[in-house]
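Have a close read of this protein, sequence plus structure tokens, and explain what the tokens say about the fold. Thanks in advance:
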Amino acid sequence: MTVRELIDTLHLTVLTAGELDAEVTGCYCGDLLSWVMSRAQAGDAWLTVMGNVNSVGVAVLADVACIILTENAALDADAKNRAESNDVTILTTADNTYVTATKVYELLKV
């Protein structure tokens, strides 16, 4: 499944559009950036409430397919600018992390 398909299927809102054709191969949930940096896998959709510039750096280092900000968590202006300059896709949803993760799981288990 691509990021674009994930957006369309889950009705996610695009905050920054990086590589929308990137393949989503897994899902990782976490807000502790050092933990995510060492455990998220390339291709994961990363679910978090951390919408700051450091999150964008972690997304680049971990090579995640996208960041999904759950519970309509805010994306700050510096993070948005950094994401746009690094082609990081950041999406948002009103759903909480658990609900979003179960939806992603169902889509990927096929």
